[in-house]
Amino acid sequence: MTEGKGMDAKMLALGIIPLLLFSGLLALFFTYGPVGVIKTTFPPVEHVAFERVELKEKLIIAHVINDGPDPVTIAQVIINDAYWPFETTKSELGPRDQATVTIPYDWTDAEPLNVALLTASGIRFEHEIAVATTSPQPSTDLFTAFAIIGIYVGVMPVFLGLLWIPFLRRLGKNALHFLLSLTIGLLLFLGVDALSEAMETSARVPQIYQGPAIVLIGFTSIILILLAIQHHSRRKHKTTEESRLLGLAYLVAIGIGLHNFGEGLAIGSAYAIGEISLGTALVLGFMIHNITEGIAIAAPISKEAHNIPRFVRHVVQLGLIAGAPVIAGTWVGGFSYSATLSTLFLAVGAGAAFQVVISIVDHFLYQKQELFTPTNVAGVLVGMGIMFATGMLVA
User: Maximum distance among all alpha carbons in the chain?
Assistant: First the structure.
């Protein structure tokens, strides 16, 4: 067998011919196979999913998608068990078609709403709004308000956690191992928490987008991408223990930042649907929660402070990487919440957290340190305990 040759026409043909034959086989099956008989034997499968519902003054706007394999015709709209006139950008929806349904309705603030669509086949699809309130519309004031919330929740607590660096620098090597193990505990808790939330929100994702598949793709892809980046960086640059720890700190910050984006989505969507008390509780809980995340970032760089300007620059960058995504999350959650996007970012945040755990374990192995020493085990357990205690405030 010859190796190293470029792709010539013959080789290209050998690769394309099986694909062409398989395409012909599929066309033959759908044209002359039993599909047509089956489709006429059984009733059509209809499913309409609500992607988002906006409330404006005397107006309800529903964004829907045909989530089934067969065409659907929107025939009626029912609001709180009463038929109501409506306008739609598209009444007949093919598979994967989207439409915006506009309903003139003088809804009452703070009261529940039940929005239902009735298809031509008589099948009803519903969307519940627990508390009716005007949907946030993009404006300078609201962008600023959500940004301030993000700063309070993400940026400031993370930087407050980083203030422990001078204290951590005075600790011995065993203490550093304890803190790195504590970081493992923190990130394990964050990863499992984000993964469970991703699975929960995946149930609200339209079937066509395959919520569980989004979780799998988001979770595994970020792990593989970060591992590939880390591998490339090690091959390109000769690493010292100091640079390895600094790189580890950046990985921790990235993982926490991706997780914090999900926190921002939760806060923004809570305010968007009028759950002010829930939004405020989330803000207070996440503020306390995120101080501990600052400790996780500080632990790997607690010994790296020889060049003060360079050290300060790294601290500022790490704090922004970990905390600023909350701001973006509140904007997305507040103005255009999407269960699909939320599921993806929660899964990505979970994967990033687990990837950092892999990197910390790899650091211990690289330094030829034992993993299951009493110090390390205690650090992991204390980290999980801290996150559990602060997580109760969020719950």
Answer: 77
Backbone angles phi, psi at 387, to 5 degrees: -65, -35
Among 341, 351, 326, smallest CA distance to 195 is for 351
How far is CA 194 from each of CA 9, 215, 380, rounded to the nearest angstrom? 49, 10, 18
Query: What value does the mean pLDDT of the chain take?
Result: 80
Closest CA to 316 of 291, 294, 290: 294
The 10s digit of each residue's pLDDT in 13-41 is 777 888 888 888 877 776 666 655 555 55
Per-residue pLDDT reduced to its tens digit, 101-160:
999 998 888 788 899 999 988 889 998 887 787 777 777 887 888 888 888 888 888 888
Q: Taking the domains of the chain in order of start, what are their residue ranges?
A: 48-129, 140-394
Amino acid, res. 326: V
Q: Is 368 left (phi over 0), alpha (psi -120 to 50) or beta?
A: left
Report the relative pairing of strands 98-104 and 124-129 from DSSP bridges.
unpaired
Which candidate, 183, 232, 115, places its Cα nearest to that of 353? 183
The pLDDT of residue 86: 92
- Taking only the tens place, the pLDDT of each residue in 316-325 is 888 888 888 8
CA distance 78 to 86: 10
* Sign, CA torsion 217/223/226/227: negative
Q: Which CATH number fits domain 48-129: 2.60.40.10, 3.40.718.10, 2.170.150.70, 3.30.360.10?
A: 2.60.40.10
| Tokens 């595994």 belong to residue | 220
For residue 135, give the nearest of 50, 78, 51, 60 by alpha carbon: 60
List the helix and strand counts (H, then E) for the chain: 13, 9
Beta-carbon contacts of residue 270 (< 8 Å; ≥ 6 apart): 276, 278, 279, 282, 333
CB-CB contact of 110 with 131 (8 Å): yes
* DSSP β-ladder status, 87-88 and 92-93: unpaired
Query: Tokens representing 30?
Result: 């759908």
Count CA atoms closer than 13 A to 162's CA, side-chain side. Answer: 24
